[in-house]
Specification:
By secondary structure, this protein is α/β, with parallel strands linked by helices. It is built from seven helices and nine strands. The two termini are 23 Å apart.
């Protein structure tokens, strides 16, 4: 089944016409889920307060829940930059986000420089554009946060917000992160929480690792909270 799904994804990615059609289909599906399901949201007011104070925020989510990334920001999607991997799956995710009106930036594959992308991220934060990223992507390990958001917060002074999304009925994909595709006519819970750590300007390697582990634990805890709210348990 894994190989069949992989072959299907490759076939779609390698055909521009099929790729555009698949993107449109996924966008329509997510909007259908939005219309037919009961949504329980908690914490967006705190994000609004942070935006009023800081102009922008850094938003993180687990890759497993990234199908619900289009719903992580309210307001004008042009005020948000979503990052995605420069690969088949990443470019597909980026195309879906653009259909929802977001700006996107592709991060180069491992071994390539991301200097221009990171410059765009930091410039965007300075100018009031929030940034969203699946923090354990693009290849994992699952639920192990990368340190990028901590660096961006340290340099820009913008707060980090955790975003967790849970759906009662999902199709669990046979991917490295067991990605969740939401089903319609279900219950969805979204939650936003400000990360309660003050990131200092100068960090040693050991301190950065402590922050990274704390960030992973905080996002895990929030994700488990929304899972319980819709009746899902790990």
């Amino acid at each position: 089944m894994n190989q069949s799904l992989t072959n299907l994804r490759r076939g779609i990615a390698n055909s521009p016409a099929l790729n555009r059609g698949a993107v449109k289909a996924f966008v329509a599906w997510l909007r259908f889920v939005r219309r037919t399901s009961h949504w329980d949201e908690d914490g967006w007011v705190e994000v609004e307060q942070a935006l009023a104070e800081h102009g922008a925020v850094v938003m993180i989510v687990w890759h497993q829940r990234s199908f619900l990334a289009p719903f992580c920001f309210h307001g004008d999607p042009q005020d948000v930059i979503h990052l995605h991997a420069e690969a088949r799956a990443g470019n597909f995710a980026g195309a879906i986000l653009r259909e929802f009106g977001y700006r996107t930036v592709a991060l180069a594959r491992k071994g390539h420089t991301n200097a221009s992308a990171l410059k765009e991220v930091l410039s965007g934060l300075k100018q009031g554009a929030s940034v969203g990223i699946a923090v354990d992507g693009p290849k994992g390990p699952a639920r192990s946060a990368k340190s990028f958001p901590i660096q961006w917060s340290r340099i820009s002074g913008k707060p980090i917000f955790l975003y967790a999304a849970a759906v009662r009925r999902v199709w669990v994909w046979p991917t490295w992160d067991k990605q969740h595709l939401p089903m319609p006519w279900t219950r969805v819970a979204l939650a936003w929480r400000r990360w309660d750590q003050d990131v200092t300007r100068k960090l040693s390697e050991a301190e950065m690792e402590e922050y990274r582990l704390a960030l992973s634990q905080a996002l895990d805890a929030l994700t488990e909270e929304v899972d319980a709210r819709v009746g899902r348990y790990r």
